[in-house]
Here is the input.
Amino acid sequence: MKFIIAIIKPFKLDDVREALGTIGIQGLTVTEVKGYGRQKGQTEIYRGAEYQIQFVAKVKIEVAVADSMLDQALDTIRAAAHTGTIGDGKMFVLELQQAIRIRTNETGEIAL
Here is the structure.
């Protein structure tokens, strides 16, 4: 099993959620986060004054998938979150040792 962490632009969340649903991924966790990458923040203009925003608002999506679904899930997230502009985000893949559904005590991929 794998654990995918994707950091994306907030307005792309619904696109990603719907796209993952179409390939059969039913559950995910979403967290509003702030951070910066290579762009080191961004400059915004408010009432004629320029402000430097060091931390950009993003959304972190966490989803556990079976090994067989990994490539399809990554491709789906990449396609749905893509805008072609700076700050589209990043994805990280971690090895998932175990999953347990608390209600039924199911373990492994069945618990996903």
About this structure: The chain has one domain: 2-111.
